[in-house]
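User: I'm preparing a small set of examples for a lab meeting where we compare how different chains pack in three dimensions. I only have the primary sequence for this one, and I'd like the structure in token form so I can line it up with the others. Please keep the answer compact; I'll paste it straight into my notes.
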Amino acid sequence: MTAAEQTAEQTKDPFADEAWRAAIEHAAGCLACRRPGVGCETGERLLRAYEGAMRRARSGTDG
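Assistant: Understood. Below is the structure token output for the 63-residue chain.
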């Protein structure tokens, strides 16, 4: 289990969990996400959404 997976499992924020799931599901089916050095705008956007949700969950704020 990676550190990111552990972090996703430890959070109690449902939005962070949903954001993590969306990013992982996208990456699993996206050829660009699975290739090193190839950028994927959607994958990057989903990861940024997850990171933002985790920051909010850690700080205890809603937005």
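A couple of notes for your slides: The chain has a mean pLDDT of 81. The chain is about 75% helix and 0% strand.

User: Perfect, thanks.
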